[in-house]
Amino acid sequence: MIDRENLTPEQAAGAKMNIEGMDVYYGSFHAIKGANLKVPDRHVMALIGPSGCGKSTFLRALNRMHDLTPGARVTGKVTLDGTDIYAPTVDPVSVRHRIGMVFQRPNPFPKSIFENVIYGPKLHGERNSAKLMEICERSLRSAAIWDEAKDRLHKSALDLSGGQQQRLCIARVLAVEPEVILMDEPASALDPIATSKIEDLIGELKKDYTVIIVTHSMQQAARISDFTTFFLLGELLEVGTTSDIFTRPKDKRTEDYITGRYG
Amino acid sequence: MANALAVTEAPAIKTSGNARIRRTVDQLATVFLWGAAFFIVLLLAVFIIYMFYLGSGSISWHFLFGLPSEMTAGGGVGPEIYNSFYILFMTLLFTVPISLAAGIYLQEYAATGRFRQAVQFSAESLATVPSIVMGLFGLLVFVQSLHWGFSALAGAVTLTLLNLPALMRVTQEALASVPDTYREASMGLGGTKWQTIVRVVLPSAIGPLTTGIVLVSGRIFGETAALIYTAGTSVAHGMGAYDLNPFRSAETLAVHLWYTHSEALIPDVDRVGNGSALVLLVMVLIFNVLARVVGRALTVRFTGKA
Predict the structure, then answer these.
(1) Neighbours of B265 (CB within 10 A)
(2) Which of A109, A127, A135, A168 to mutate against chain B (most B CBs within 10 Å)?
(3) pTM of the full structure
């Protein structure tokens, strides 16, 4: 029997999110099978596994993005600071406010850089333009793109490079002051230099935020994460500290994947 | 086999046997396709030049702004031009909100399901109704049963029925052109569906939306058959022809063109007809150019990209 919750008690005690018995279905397809996971506060948790193993599906269940997909169904329990985000009394919009998401391809709105960053705060009712400017600068600084963007705040975000766009998207998420940031292969469409900037940024972000990141690059998981979770064929097979997973995997299949025996 | 040949022959690039035929067919296809495309441009050019040749002699200040005459020569088309714009404006006033709302519902809310299919099927069926049939329907329902008489309102409502499906389609296609990643990003930031539609989806779709609306406007402007029995073939006498009363009869320019050639008693039918046709043509061309210019300008304004 595989130990699916082998975080040390100290790690688990500070869990920001707790997933218990999660199943995800697309129509009749059983995409995630009974996943259990505790996500420690203010650390980076990497989700790895071969293509199609369900890691992105799992990630999107953590801020109720599947609500937007016709035919997708999530069962089980997902708590944020002890509150079940799938409880009928919980508004999915407020869940996504507290749990932000950065997508695989940079997806800035076709608006100015400034408008992109303050989009979230404006949604939630902030109208004071001095306050919005302050949020804009703070978020862009936190996302390490202020220096590149400060002279062109009112120019279209689409004129930025791919790596800059992705950091802008991170700034846009930071502007709504979430507690957890979900990242779905945020660097997979970027060149190596842009990738390393994003990775440095994630290292900074974990001081203030809980980061859960899907990555297909094991080197990336090893470089940036504190904990790693391994998925295979819709099952959450193993979770542990990143060094344990990469040096002493408990499951034979994890070892096979780490050593490059699955695609 | 290939190696054996390489040894005996000079090392030239070998072409396969039918290369010459394939190249000829390729060139023929290019010429033919180019010719077909050029034919369309030529057709439009010839048509426009001919219309100008026939109609430009009739165009004068008096013709464009003067009142039409019933029996004598020298009438103008001022009220007809006014009515065309008046009915167009009223039609858009009814059509745009309804088709926008229905299109948004179908594209953003009812992704699948029977209701969507039912609406889609109804719209497609409605779109195939010939405009003369719609005109007779308008005559029976609005003009006679509702006692609106031959009126601008009856014409506008009939045109609304005629153009709802097209504008709904325009809305749907404009919304479909907005990438889902924008919607995901907005929802991911804690936006509601409505906020996402109003703040991201519609501004991103504004270009194709405007282009579609202006193109449909051109069609409404030139519509004839649906208006003959609804808006009527006459205009009020004197300056009453320019008022805003929706219950007066309101002959449009396109209807006037038909009317002068089929029923009118005036002696200068050709002069009025050719002039009307030219004005109509120029107006519709302006709509088409406007559709592109305004659509592009709004896209740049709202999204910062060309």
Answers:
(1) 10
(2) A109
(3) 0.81
